[in-house]
Write a structure and sequence with these properties.
299 residues, Rossmann fold, binds 3'-phosphate-adenosine-5'-phosphate sulfate
């Protein structure tokens, strides 16, 4: 692979990582903190939570289509997905918090990357339903690396080897992958309105995962509706679709790396050296001791 020659190409960025209540963050996700914490959820809000690059856009689009495809083609062709499913904690104009509270739909679909302890308490008080999407750490790290290369709102990732070390040490925006996934997995044990999904399952059988999601949400789309959702959310269609491929988002330079980059399980094999992989596995065992939480690294 040609990773060595491209790994230094990153879009310049002013974003600096700092620790916020013990979690790596950047200013655009903390500067509106009090308003975010005071966000008033409604009982029918649906929160999609993920560590960055775990499949947020994919699941957001599935949810949006399941609930709102019937509203007609205009919504699908004129409103970018990130305005239909706003990002709770992002803070750049137009303020999604503003957008979120003004969302005209019921339910409101809301996206967050916050670790579980940072979620505004109103979501729990209102017993909102939560969909968490998790992706295996190796592919998640690779995808995050390329995202930091192309998005000027994020810190510059440095070389792949540096980035991977930082990932293992949790020196990342939204903190440690290990803490994020473990924290949300624990929440699932005590909170009933919770659906835990895996990126790898979606890749393996998207139709089955749509069925499971529908059963969690008590939705019963017709077979035709389900087929239409399934066809719209393929990687190729989402990559072509200007409303889902983030081409309307100005902080991203998609010539450095497209937002819809590869959409595969196992691309980590093109990035990890044998030594990096061994070190990663060793470290992983120390951090991920819960035998119930298992990930797949290939399909
Ligand atoms: S973000 O910025 O955190 O919201 O990114 P997120 O959407 O969570 O993750 C982006 C990765 O998901 C892949 N993706 C998909 N894969 C398969 N099928 C579909 N439909 C799909 N939609 C998005 C996207 O390509 C990113 O992964 P990588 O590995 O970088 O390609």
């Amino acid at each position: 692979t040609d990773i060595v020659s491209i790994e230094h190409v990153s879009i310049p960025s002013m974003a600096k990582l700092f620790y916020f209540h013990g979690v790596g963050m950047i200013n655009q996700f903390t500067k509106n903190w009090d308003n975010i914490q005071n966000f008033k959820a409604r009982p029918d809000d649906i929160l999609t939570a993920t560590y960055p690059k775990a499949g947020t856009t994919w699941v957001s689009y599935i949810l949006d289509l399941l609930y709102f495809a019937h509203m007609g083609p205009d919504r699908q062709t004129s409103i970018p997905l990130h305005d239909r499913v706003p990002f709770l904690e992002i803070c750049k104009p137009p303020l999604p918090l503003h957008l979120t509270s003004k969302l005209p739909t019921t339910p409101r679909l809301i996206k967050t990357h916050l670790p579980v302890q940072f979620v505004p308490k109103s979501f729990w008080e209102q017993r909102c339903r939560v969909v968490y999407v998790a992706r295996n750490a190796k592919d998640n790290a690779v995808s995050y690396f390329h995202f930091e290369r192309m998005d000027s709102g994020m810190p510059e990732p440095g070389k792949w080897s540096t980035f991977l070390q930082n990932f293992m040490e949790g020196k990342m925006v939204f903190g440690s992958w290990y803490d994020h996934v473990n924290g949300w997995w624990e929440k699932k044990q005590t909170y009933s309105g919770f659906h835990f999904m895996f990126y790898e399952d979606l890749i393996e059988d998207c139709g089955r995962e749509i069925d499971r999601l529908c059963s969690f949400l008590s939705l019963s789309p017709s077979p035709e509706e389900k087929e239409r959702v399934k066809a719209s959310v393929t990687f190729d269609n989402m990559k072509q679709n200007k409303m889902t491929n983030y081409s309307t988002f100005d902080s991203m330079n998609q010539t450095i790396s497209p937002f819809m980059r590869k959409g595969k399980v196992g691309d980590w094999k093109n990035h990890f050296t044998v030594a990096q992989n061994e070190q990663f596995d060793e470290d992983y065992k120390q951090k991920m001791k819960n035998p119930d939480l298992k990930f797949r690294y290939e399909i």
